């Protein structure tokens, strides 16, 4: 069992923000308001999560557990669309499906085959493991979508030229697909290459603080890192595939309202 943290001591951490805010003000970085709002939102959101997760873990109902995870997926899909600056009507379904399918598949595979649970819908595993998979899928999809669509927009003449020469949509966009996949996966690949050497990741830290042996913690960390990479790869590729199917018109041109200008 991890050592509890005194609330007053935890709040004392905020003292370190005073010099940071002072330097930020002097340098005119313009991030004080956003930082303050983010800290307040983080605190409130995590407190509320802690409250209702307590009851979810106590009930441990399979329908509630998976329902909560699907709700997380829907929220993540909204976040991907917002942060990718893409049209909600055009891309909500592609983003939702590309987030839903790989994450549920990998989560259930981990719970059934890897961890070998009797109850694969156990809240203690579904929500933490699902959250880690989902968080990385969210970041990967944002990077993949942003890179793919911005490359098409910035290279319109080249793309049109390939289409006019007889290339199909896939052939004309293949260089952009390759680039978007690489930039999407590079952070995860780099993280896998340095895990344990540069940093002790969250899954392993949580296991050790919870009283598990380091060897057990390592096994869980390897499993979740592989799960993250696989789910992110499938999600990014699936998302781009669905965008190709639903984000272009019958003339193989990107729909006019696909990208939302800031």
Q: Can you tell me about this structure?
A:
Helix 5 (88-114) runs antiparallel to helix 10 (214-246). The chain folds into two domains: 1-59; 62-246, no CATH class. The protein has 262 residues and is mainly alpha-helical. It has helices spanning 7-12, 17-27, 32-59, 62-84, 88-114, 123-154, 156-164, 169-194, 202-209, 214-246. The N and C termini lie far apart (47 Å).
The helix/strand series, from N terminus to C terminus, equals HHHHHHHHHH
End-to-end gap:
47 Å
| Helix content estimate | over 70%
Shape: globular
- The number of E-state strands comes to 0
Number of helical segments with 4 or more residues:
10
The rounded Rg comes to 21 Å
Low-confidence stretches: none
Structural class: mainly alpha
Q: How many distinct domains?
A: 2
Average predicted local confidence, pLDDT: 91
Task: Supply database-style keywords.
single chain; 262 residues; 2 domains; 0% strand
Question: Quick gist of this model?
Answer:
With 262 residues, the protein is mainly alpha-helical.
